[in-house]
Amino acid sequence: MTAILANQTCWVPKPGLLVSARSIFESRFIVASGAGWLDLKEPSLGSLGRPSLELIFAVFELDIPKTVQVSVAGGELVNWTADLDNLLAAKLPARTYLKMALAYCSGTDWQKIAERISRALVRRSQLILVHYADTENSRSPHWQEVIEITKSLGGKFVLIDTHCKKSGGLLDHYSLEQLEKMISSAKQLRLGVALAGSLKLEQLPSLSNLQADWLGVRGAVCQEAQRTGDLCLDRLQQAVALFPACSSIES
Known about the structure:
Blueprint: E1 3-4, E2 10-11, E3 16-21, H1 24-33, E4 37-40, H2 53-59, E5 69-76, H3 82-87, E6 96-101, H4 110-120, E7 127-132, H5 135-138, H6 143-152, E8 157-161, H7 170-173, H8 176-188, E9 192-195, H9 204-207, E10 214-217, H10 233-240
């Protein structure tokens, strides 16, 4: 499948499309749209804001095709409690990934908490650790540490995102060349990579050439391009039109 952009250039997409939802309504439309990955999060609670347990388990009652990947934002690792191991991690279906962000973890023994969460999951490969591109401001671990710990815990994917949305998007922190090298280092460890961080629709073609497995959007498919706003069906359709109907990435 190819897409013709506004400048009439032809783009053959490579990665799959991940779209974040904050409600049952949005989840239904994202699944129906043909997006390859449904992600649940609450944008008003931060970059990886954890949605309510009620929403999470209500979405699991939907008829989601097995071809669609599913993930839940777990929030920041520093805010995760042992109670959540039993309330959320242990109850996630085996096909559902749990994304954990690492703000304020630099210089701490965060690996032990990540390992405990990993062991609480049905499959250890369900845990996705998040590297923040604005590393210094978020006081989060550097890329090499994140991918090495992910590998040691049996993880399958890592996500590159941004912590403070006011400090710019992904490409304000990393160049395409830097991202290409980072993705290559993850691939050497046999890890898949998802890119997010206030990505704009017009940035997706250039990012698609970096061999990432997934490109994640939220604000780009919302009303007035605001991540805390309502999902815009027209924008969602524009995004999906740039990607294959079904991703070739397996769970």
